[in-house]
Amino acid sequence: MKISEIASVKIEQLPLEKQKEVLDFIEFLQSKIESSQIEETVSFLEAAKDFAGCLDSKITDLSYNQQYMEGYGE
Question: How many Å apart are CA 32 and CA 28, to the nearest integer?
Fold first, then answer.
């Protein structure tokens, strides 16, 4: 027997008021799951800001080496 079938049998044995409480709890769990799945979009720069400048280098900008991307994609 599947969990949903067992739960359904047990819920049917409860008084109507308790069945409503179970339904409210299920809806609460669903909303919790949905809200945790919604992730805020963050740029790489924002996500890595705590690590910016952590290397021992005087280069403060990745565009410092202008020749690095020359010929890329050709």
Answer: 6
How distant, in Å, are the alpha carbons of 11, 20, 23, 71 from that of 14?
Answer: 5, 10, 12, 72
Q: How confident is the model at residue 7 (pLDDT cuts 50, 70, 90)?
A: very high
d(CA 50, CA 44): 11
**Residue spans per domain, the chain:** 3-69
Instruction: Please say whether the beta carbons of 52 and 62 come within 8 A.
Output: no
Give me the helix-helix angle, 3-12 and 16-37, nearest 10°.
140
Instruction: State yes or no: pLDDT of 21 exceeds 80.
Output: yes
Instruction: Please determine, for residue 54, whether its predicted confidence score (pLDDT) is greater than 80.
Output: no
When the pLDDT of each residue in the chain is averaged and rounded to a whole number, the result is: 80
